[in-house]
Amino acid sequence: MAGAQPGTHALKLKPLTVPDTLKNGSRFMKWDDDLSTVTPITPTVDPHGYFLHWTDQNKETEFLDITHIKDARTGKSTKTPKEAKLRELLDVGNLVGRIENRLLTIVTGPDMVNITYLNFMALQVEEATEWAEELFSLASNLLSHNMNRETSLEKAYVTVTLQPNSEGRIPVKNIVRMFSADKKRVETALEHCNLPFGRSNSIPLEDFTPDVYRSFLSHLCPRPELSSVFSQQGAKGAYLSVDQMTEFINERQRDPRLNEILYPPLRPSQIQTLMEKYELNQSLLKQGLITLEGFSRYLVSDENGVIPPEKLDQSEDMTFPLSHYFINSSHNTYLTGTQTNVYNKQQLSRIYPKGTRVDSSNYMPQLFWNAGCQLVALNFQTIDLTMQLNLGMYEYNGKSGYRLKPEFMRRPDKHFDPFAESTVDGIVANTVKIISGQFLSDKKVGVYIELDMFGLPVDTRRKALKTKTSQSNAINPVWDEEPIIFKKVVLPTLASLRIAAFEEEGKFIGHRIIPVPAIRPGYRYIGLRNEKNQSLILPAVFVYIEVKDYVPDTFADVIEALSNPIRYVNLLEQRSQQLAALTLEEGEEETSKEVEANADQPGLAEPKANLRSAPLENGHSPITAPRHGAERSDRYGGGHTRGAQATQADRAGAEETLQGDEGCGEETPEEDFGDGEGTDNQVQPGSEPTHTQTQRSPEKERLDFCMYDFIYYSVVRGKLEINKSYVNEVVQNIKRLEDAQAKRQERLVEQHKDIQQQILDEKPKLQGAVEAEYQEKFCLLPGEIQDFLLNRKGGVKSHVVPQPSTPHDILSEEELEEDRSK
Description:
Blueprint: H1 20-24, E1 28-32, E2 37-41, E3 44-45, E4 51-55, E5 61-65, E6 69-73, H2 84-89, E7 103-108, E8 116-122, H3 125-139, H4 149-161, E9 169-171, H5 172-178, H6 183-192, E10 202-204, H7 210-220, H8 224-232, E11 239-241, H9 242-253, H10 268-278, H11 282-286, E12 289-291, H12 292-299, H13 309-312, E13 325-327, H14 337-346, E14 350-351, H15 366-370, E15 375-376, H16 385-393, E16 402-404, E17 428-438, E18 447-454, E19 461-466, E20 484-489, E21 496-503, E22 508-515, E23 522-529, E24 535-549, H17 556-563, H18 565-583, H19 586-597, H20 632-635, H21 648-659, H22 691-694, H23 698-794, H24 813-821
Parallel strand pairs: 14-15
Antiparallel strand pairs: 1-2, 1-8, 3-4, 4-5, 6-7, 7-8, 9-10, 11-12, 13-16, 17-20, 17-24, 18-19, 18-21, 21-22, 23-24
Helix pairs in contact: 6-7, 9-10, 17-18, 18-23
């Protein structure tokens, strides 16, 4: 199983491209075995790759949605005409070569059981081969099955424009049929666009341009909820500034769990470039502004798909043993011999419907996925909710039919109980708000939305949310109700979110099943699917989603305080003032009023009893530490004060106030904070105790304790910041090492190039020198040979022939005879 390797995923998905041969069309003979008919046609594919269409002999256009094509075959896998009449009409007897090489069979249908075969015969073998390959490539492109909202609306426009009448005009009845939920609204929208709107009228193709079509949609389906979202982002009048758009994208549309170093938020300059793609008013762009129309175009674009493209692609590591995957399997799927060996080694588990299910019903596969079973086989011919969950499960990872199990389900040293509520790594908290719907039904009926969560038993919530039913409005219902909060999803890797739309009487319209880890936060359009998981062109739901890391309730206040400490301190101070006002006695209250009245009049006498301790030099009031000994009873409900006892009314009022007091941590023994010796508020011998020193009510003690809690958690926050700083430092070091390695590699490459160039430069010189030396030695060689032979002859003294020691010592026959004569 070759596939994606661990690490950063390189997206393999490519946009649709239609070859010229398919756009221009080719001549085919369409034949039907059942009707024994043969029709000459010229099928073509629109430039966007949405439809295969042709005109039959009755001058009517036939359509085939390319996403519904299961296979395109040629050669031995095609259907061949069997009846003699068909073979005669196709002139099979006069064909040169094998007939199946010119045949094209297109397999189409809503599922793998209910399929239809369309049979064609090309004039040339090459044409049949090209059409089969290109049609299958278009049909299997995952982006065509996961269109953004803009592309879906464009597909509806192409559907209308591909059905002109004999005069080349668009019949109004075709537009009414496409948007049939409210025929009167369709006619009114056409009238607003200054187009013919009568049922018997038609519109020239050149008048129904894409811009006119968008204007028609805005009148047919007004979107007041978008104006509300636009205003909530701080729009001044009809515009958003670059800074406001930057805040919207980074705060609303960005996943807050992303590392800000590896995935930094967008800068205003990047947002300006983004705005230039969607805002048409150039003068406003120069001022750094975007209109509601540009904002709407941004929301329906590829930038805002609810599922990131890498989740659709084959992004999971496909190199693990077979037992580490969930494997898509029907009831009639069996392993091959080599894989049956893998079963014995890796202990694969295969679950299948029991024989008593004579109605081909299915069981809930989620239970067995939770237990780590690999092959959970279903009856594919029954498209019920359980089969829909199976289709949603295996739609991702490139539709390979394999999904990698979570790590703790693969490692032998890990234990996991699917029925336990204990936490595991990666717990998330999701919030989903259903805002509105668009073109949900082709009838004028009320509609509503339901929300389900499937996963572990602790995560599963059936009908977690059900909206109100709209009032006979399926075109643009707006709910904008309270969101549903999933506070804790224990195992998001096995959890799926299902959003389903129904008519008022409960009839199913469409749904979408999305794995929880693949959900993008922010304002998103969710295109609906039918019960067989095929994309519906028009129906969609507009939602707002928040995704966060899970925080237990025990630490919710702490996290809130740490996320905004200034607000938390201000809130404590406000509560302190409120509690102080409740505990003042009658005389003290009058003194307090006198102080407030004389605050702006210099020279007036100061009150005898100060209600606040003197501020320190830095302008902050000191925090009075609690005393130990008998004073501990103040904190734990004794009600005593230092030197004075609070009245019963004071304590009763304080207790009533503290019941609604939030944000204070649990009480901790005062030894954790010291006994307060040496503080400014400690009573000195012989001094007159002030009100602050003597009047220590339980409320004030509780507030001081909250402040100490805040200081303690601030220290914890500091440690967390240190850890975060350390992680960031490690990431930076890794990046620096990678940069240094890349630069070193570049230097080595440059040095290698320099050495290669030096070799190339020196090569001619060296070759010339070697050639000259060779020629010089070659010229001297004959003389050296002659001298050698003469010297050799002079050294022979007898007829005994010595054994040559080198090849040069070998003598010729003439030389031997000459030696003998001597």
